Amino acid sequence: MDFSSFLTSLGTSFVIFLVLMFLFTWLSRKQGNKVVYYPNRILKGMDPCEGDSSTRNPFAWIREALSSTEEDVINMSGVDAAVYFVFLSTALGILVLAGLLLLPVLLPVSITDHSVKFDNTTSNGTFSDLDKLSMGHIEEKSPRLWAFVIAAYWVSFVAYYLLWKAYKHVSDLRAAALMSPEMREEQFAVLVRDIPPPPEGLTRREQIDSYFKTIYPETFYRSMVVTNNKEVNKIWEELKGYRKKLARAEAIYEESKKSGKPEGTKPTNKIGFLGLIGKKVDSLEYYNEKINELVPKLEAEQKVTLREKQQASAIVFFTSRLTAASAAQSLHAQMVDTWTVMDAPEPRQLIWTNLPKKFYERQIRQSVVYVVVFLTIVFFMIPIGLISAFTTLEQLKKLLPFLKPIVNQAAIKTVLEAYLPQLALIIFLALLPKFLLFLSKAEGIPSESHAIRAASGKYFYFTVLNVFIGVTVGGTLFSTFKTIQKKPNSIVTLLGTSLPNNATFFLTYVALKFFVGYGLELSRIVPLIIYHLKRKYLCKTQAELKEAWSPGDLGYATRFPGDMLIITIVLCYSVIAPIIVPFGVLYFGLGWLVLRNQVLKVYVPSYESYGRMWPHMHTRILVALLLFQATMFGYFGVKKFYFTPILIPLPILSLIFTFICKKKFYRFFQATALEVACRDLKETPNMEVVFRSFIPPSLSSEKSDDDQFDDALSHVSRTGSIV
């Protein structure tokens, strides 16, 4: 790609962003669109337009985002959202402070080196103006390379300083949330797994109650035995489905009274396959009959489940959150594969099917999943390498000669050069996240937030190894395959000299991500279109309408790894091609603004983990930093710089920094510090409310009578100790 194509790509992306931003301003004013642009505020019972004016200018949302505080973010979207903004601010700070030295120092050093001839370039015979701004423009063994050595140290120390500050700040945020006087149900419970078989003469409930009553005689409240809910969930989902269909049929019937005859027209449906074949019946009567059949069936299955399908896992409740915090981090049994106790996640987070999985089964599952992820990463490198190699215009013209007349036209050529490889890559990556989340849950992880953290880790390593390294290796190997065949030892040199050239690809990739990606995020065009189509053609009830505009959460499983790919790219090329740094600053700066607006007004958190994602964010930024340091070491070797070993301390310092941070901060993100848990609550907790919040919906009884739950949902047992 030449310089003019790059500028065209950048300009096009910027124009698209401006169009989408003005579209957002216009669409968000309309009353019928408020549920798409302000759902978080609406669900909290707030005025969606509070603080807005009907004549707001296109940039008013920027002022509102900038004026918001961290407390506002926590109140609207929780601590996890605030921690995500700490990550964005830290990444932005690293790039801004790095750029203060890199841009005014390295660019003049590169551009004023006239010793490199035009044919000694990294652009495969076509000299690019961007190469003049990169380290590739510096002559081998040149003393000018000292400036780049100093820059590598500067970037590293800036990262250490800001990451340390951020870790301390997030730790304070987590502590403030956990010591809040407000009652949170999960703080009074622990999750117990790997319960051994009950002794003869004792039920599972009596076994658990006796065990914990002996250890915690003053504060033990009661226990809830985890059950196999497969059958009861199936009936409950079926019942819920018929109730939704009944509500829809009633809404259609009421609508027919207004638009047609006063007595209305009763809706009908076919009861065969997918409602397309079979006998036609009165929908209202049919759904009522089905509901009346399923209610007693559900109640009977609930009793069977609670009495006969108990598993070797339970949730145990205490009247003190200090006791619960202490129990969650204590060793209860002599053997670690029995009576495993951990802090309970929020009730909405529990993955019930994973709770009974045994200790060794979880270890085996985790190992198998890691092997599958490794194979996925290895075999995905092949198609991504092919995408990188085949989506260049020159390769397309060689492979598909009939396209030459089309792609040789100036306008089409410019657009294809600018967007083809990047779009192919983005679409390809969009297929992966659900598969990785499925694998993470298959490990036996007990909560949604933990599964999302695990999935985001897999996705991060996938994107770094396949996108960053895969694109660089793929693009290089394709164009130099014959050279490598003749001289296999030249691969390091070839990869090194290709880095500045690949920086142009990544410059465009970053620009496309922040201008077009954040433009679509802000404008919410796709959710808006889907909502209006559903409202017009599908939604008949208020519940269906609410479901149509429900925004979901921020999507940490994919959003954070996407951000990490950008910080990895920008860090690794920050010294080699410093011109990429402003693009990284724009990405994280614009992301901070756009997502601040979305978190305050749009997204609704699906869980709260009180910042447990942060240690993973911190570690992965350090992984990106290590990759940057390794890249610099290799590239200085390519440049035949005699003092390259002076960079050896950098990765060592990074590993020491990682070790110190883990030892100092990480434990508090694994368990709640007792000095935090001992703070007084605003009021004495209602333990029955706490207990009932953990009952799965399929086991909740509509009757006030609690007798049917007596076997699994225990009162304190009167039996003796079994400890």
TrEMBL record:
Residues 5-165 form the CSC1/OSCA1-like N-terminal transmembrane domain. GO terms for cellular component: plasma membrane. Residues 365-636 form the CSC1/OSCA1-like 7TM region domain. It is found in: Membrane. Pfam families: PHM7_cyt (PF14703), RSN1_7TM (PF02714), RSN1_TM (PF13967). The chain crosses the membrane at residues 6-27, 82-107, 145-164, 367-390, 419-439, 459-481, 564-595, 616-636, 642-661. GO terms for molecular function: calcium-activated cation channel activity. Keywords: Calcium, Ion channel, Ion transport, Membrane, Transmembrane, Transmembrane helix, Transport. It comes from the Eukaryota. It is a multi-pass membrane protein. Residues 187-354 form the CSC1/OSCA1-like cytosolic domain. Belongs to the CSC1 (TC 1.A.17) family. This is CSC1-like protein ERD4.
